[in-house]
Amino acid sequence: MTDRRLWSYKDIAAHIGVRTDTVRSYRKHALLPPPDLVERGKPYWYADTVRAWVARRPGNRRGRRGAP
Q: Is residue 19 within 8 Å of 13, Cβ to Cβ?
């Protein structure tokens, strides 16, 4: 089953346990996958996209928590 809920910077930050500004910085430095959707200038990612990215992150220990 796929999880097509859309997550914002805030949702991603909560999922991996960092500040929202940190997630924005990840995107600025191309460390975050491209958004799945941009609506009114705001990027959103599918929950599955974020979880796959978290699983690939080196040294990740925080991202295995539940969804926001």
A: yes
Q: Which residues pair with 37 in a beta bridge?
A: 44
Whether residue 51 contacts residue 62, with contact meaning beta carbons closer than 8 Å, is answered with no
pLDDT tens digit sequence for 22-50: 999 999 999 999 999 999 999 999 999 99
Residue whose pair of structure tokens reads 């991603």 in the numeric block: 12
Residue 59: Cβ-neighbour burial (10 angstroms; 0-12, 13-18, 19+): exposed
> Alpha-carbon distance 43 to 57, whole Å?
20
The amino acid occupying position 15 is H
pLDDT at 50: 97
Query: Has residue 3 got a pLDDT over 60?
Result: yes
